[in-house]
Specification:
Layout lengths: L2 E12 L6 E12 L3 E5 L6 H8 L7 E6 L2 E2 L5 H11 E4 L11 H6 L10 H14 L15 H13 L5 E5 L7 H16 L3 E5 L3 H4 L4 E6 L2 E6 L11 H14 L3
Parallel strand pairs: 3-8, 3-9, 6-7, 7-8
Antiparallel strand pairs: 1-2, 1-4, 4-5, 9-10
Bound molecules: adenosine-5'-diphosphate (ADP) and magnesium ion (MG).
């Protein structure tokens, strides 16, 4: 399998002197093209920090991140921003949306910097994505007139506007009820099946059990890795996967 992201010996610390803490303590990790990977670990174990390091959203103190052949630390800020915009999509617990724009414009706005497409093309694309993610018809709505699950879909549409190679998710279902969380996971699974690599942080076993590889972070290192393999909703029993993952996490002292 082709490597999409290679993180080598990543270190990052916060604080000074006696307060200094190595949040990333020499992590090496490869994410392959087409994978669906979850990062788990206790609160404060460095999950978000690792995600930000691998996506170039935040710098590291030492070590290197190679993304799709490019050494992120060697890129100028502009080039890094371009690469993030054209090859990566981000989904957080809650999308940051603008209140004075309708939903369609919220989806399109970040993509307007991409001069290759005109407004009509962007609108057409956004509407296609809204249909695919089950929010067709909400184009002209105010963001206050949509549910948390719907807004998360808006965030996902926005993340897909640039046809990213990878979606990074930092607890993308963390603020949702279980029904909405399941729907978002089904959507992410669809996106994964269409060929997009997905790397998400979660503390929810029900979410991680649907991914194909789980990394467990502890004290700034990867303490273990579990590979349930690709989840097939028709053939695989989810409960069995969740129980196996829970047992493994218990061994990891989660
Ligand atoms: N910008 C920052 N300044 C200071 N400390 C930070 C910063 N970001 C993260 N940390 C600290 O690093 C540790 C790991 O944070 P984080 O990666 O957010 O953990 P997780 O996502 O696993 O909960 C925490 O102890 C947190 O307080
Ligand atoms: Mg976090």
């Amino acid at each position: 399998m082709k490597t999409l992201i290679s993180g080598e010996n990543l270190t990052k610390s916060f604080g000074l002197g006696a307060e200094k803490r190595n949040v990333l303590d020499g992590i090496s990790v490869d994410i392959h093209q087409g994978e669906f990977v979850a990062v788990m670990g206790p609160s404060g174990s460095g999950k978000s920090t690792l995600l930000y390091a691998l996506s170039g959203m935040d710098s590291v103190d030492s070590g290197s991140v190679t993304f799709d052949g490019a050494d992120l630390s060697a890129l100028k800020e502009n080039d890094l921003a371009d690469l993030r915009r054209t090859k990566m999509g981000f989904v957080f617990q809650q999308p940051t949306l603008l209140r004075n724009l309708d939903i369609l414009d919220n989806i399109i706005l970040p993509a307007m910097r991409d001069s290759r497409k005109n407004g009509a093309q962007l609108t057409e694309k956004a509407q296609r994505l809204m249909k695919k993610t089950g929010i067709a018809g909400l184009e002209m709505r105010d963001i206050t007139q949509a549910s948390g699950g719907q807004l998360q879909r808006v965030g996902i549409c926005r993340a897909l506007m640039g046809d990213p190679k990878i979606i990074f998710g930092d607890e993308p279902t963390g603020a949702l009820n279980s029904t909405a969380a399941n729907e978002i996971m089904a959507l992410l699974a669809d996106i994964h099946r269409s060929g997009v690599t997905i790397l998400l942080v979660t503390h929810d076993v029900r979410v991680a059990a649907k991914t194909e590889r789980v990394l467990f972070l502890l004290d700034g290192n990867i303490a273990g890795e579990y590979q349930p393999g690709v989840y097939n909703a028709t053939h695989d029993d989810l409960k069995t996967r969740e129980e196996a993952l829970t047992a493994w996490l218990a061994e990891m002292k989660f």
